[in-house]
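Model it.
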Amino acid sequence: MKGHQVTIIDIAKKLGISKSTVSRALTNNPNVNPETRKAVLEMAKTLDYQPNMLALGLIKNETRMLGVIIPDIQKPFFAAIVSGIQHAVGRMGYRTIIAQSDESPQIEKENIQALMLSRVDGFLICHTRDTRNFDQIKLLYQKGFPLVSFARICQGLPIPKVVEDDFNGLYTTTQHLIERGRKRIALLAGPKHLQASKLRQQGYLSALRQNGIGFDNELVAHTRFLADDVAVAVNRWLALAEPPDAICTIYDGGAVQVMQLLKSRGVNVPGDIAVAGFGNDPASGLVEPGLTTFEQRPYEIGQAAGKHMLDILKKRFGDVPPEITISEGRLVVRGST
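Modeled.
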């Protein structure tokens, strides 16, 4: 019948046997007669039977499906991480269900609930920029779900975490700007509560201190990664009696926008103000001048997160020591500095 999904009941009726016998045959139960198993498999192929993975999961207490929650699939950084996760777990027979939170803590919570109902075997989660309440994640942990946190992490749980080279990234970038003769280096930071934003700001401050450059609070702007925030920061800096001679950002999208705003105001990059980013997104090599940036290696972050998940699943009933994996990056120098 058109639109009808074939079930084990259909196979059983065709062969004149019980549905329990069909079920045992399809799951390679040794108690099924080999001739019966062969007949069931042939009929299943003839009828184009597709197994109900959720039902099989209920039987085996595993679905071999993993839930991956990310803030924004359109951003190359998150897309590359997902690719790394899928390649890591796919080789071991696991598939992923990708859920996008769209930077909303409420949608993130709803995604977790939906994936729980889908009976995924584990969760790999990158939190939204605004996630501050981790009760939902703690509940997953208490229920025994395998968990891996990456990029924007949950600090309060003893679970594996994979993060970027945050401190070293901004330290290296700021040091590079200082070596280019820049003394008033502004920082376009992220939300104050994000661990990555904190570490990147610490790297920036460390480079200033080591080079005897005093910290000026006016040169630091915290944003929510929104275009309006970037415009406010740049306009404020340009209005200072002594504007910055360099702007360091903790994400490439912000750096590209900074360059566009400076050009629109007649400011030469890098002649008047040098600009550096973080991430090495594809756009960083396409703008003019090319954007100096610290490469994050998101694919490797995804692979590391996937491998951590496989380790947890392999030792599900044993102790899995939590650890933080730092994906090492490198500075890519282009024309903007």
